[in-house]
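User: tokens in, sequence out, please.
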């Protein structure tokens, strides 16, 4: 009976340590930048924490004067950047979780 209580204490300690490591990884992800692009016209920079830092639009794209086309290009570039950020976060987190997909982790 006492062995099980000790095991539970060990499990709780490991869970707490894992939580601390996950928080550290999340902080690190906030400092990492990834890029999403649409051709050479639009570039979006996001952090590994899924925040858009910047969007750059080539002057040639603006000269065309097609706002709808520019909006589509920006949307695609931002989604590409966020997809890259998601991949980065998943790869960093899977190192800590041993490849287990834990819902709600990030």
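Assistant: Sequence out:
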């Amino acid at each position: 009976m006492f062995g099980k209580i000790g095991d539970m204490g060990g499990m709780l300690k490991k869970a707490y340590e894992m939580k601390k490591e996950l928080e550290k990884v999340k902080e690190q992800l906030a400092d990492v930048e990834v890029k999403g692009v649409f051709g050479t016209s639009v570039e979006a920079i996001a952090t590994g924490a899924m925040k858009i830092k910047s969007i750059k639009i080539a002057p040639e794209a603006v000269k065309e004067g097609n706002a709808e086309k520019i909006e589509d290009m920006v949307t695609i570039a931002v989604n590409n950047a966020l997809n890259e950020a998601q991949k980065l976060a998943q790869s960093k987190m899977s190192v800590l979780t041993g490849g287990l997909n834990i819902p709600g982790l990030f």
